[in-house]
Write a structure and sequence with these properties.
30% helix, Spore Coat Polysaccharide Biosynthesis Protein SpsA, Chain A, single chain, globular
């Protein structure tokens, strides 16, 4: 699993808004677990953008159900254009100080977003990334400008 976290500005505020963008395409079997790990984060000032990229299974209606259950969720429905365009659509709709991309079949540790937020704010960094592989500890890397 790989998650990127891109810093928009260097203005420090308490509980800055983080936009979490999840491209969704025919992931009905995995999507609930992914979504639940996002909404249960200890860092909760989130804007969760679900981009339904023309799903032909129940994923699109699941997006709408999730939006109805949590006011932090925005849904974009679009014709299938691929994961890159789905991420770009989410990025255009985002209003957060930070952007985080999560694949719809991934799931996060409950403190993952807080850990990334703390890491990127520990210096003049533009990107923080978590990589986790089976049976390994979570590895965080941060990149300077």
């Amino acid at each position: 699993m790989e998650i990127l976290y891109i810093k928009h500005s260097y203005t420090m505020k308490q509980k800055e808004l983080i936009s979490v963008i999840i491209p969704v395409y025919n992931i009905a079997n995995y999507f609930t677990r992914c979504f639940e790990t996002i909404v249960r984060q200890t860092y909760d000032n989130l804007e969760i953008i679900l981009v339904d990229d023309g799903s032909t299974d129940a994923s699109g209606s699941m997006c709408d159900d999730f939006a109805a259950s949590d006011s932090r969720v925005k849904v974009i429905h679009q014709e299938n254009a691929g994961v890159g365009e789905a991420r770009n659509s989410g990025k255009r709709a985002s209003t957060g100080n930070y952007i985080m991309f999560v694949d719809g079949d991934d799931y996060l540790h409950v403190e993952a977003i807080q850990v990334l937020y703390d890491a990127i704010n520990s210096g003049p960094y533009d990107i923080a990334q978590i990589e986790r592989r089976q049976n390994e500890l979570m590895k965080i890397s941060i990149n300077k400008r």
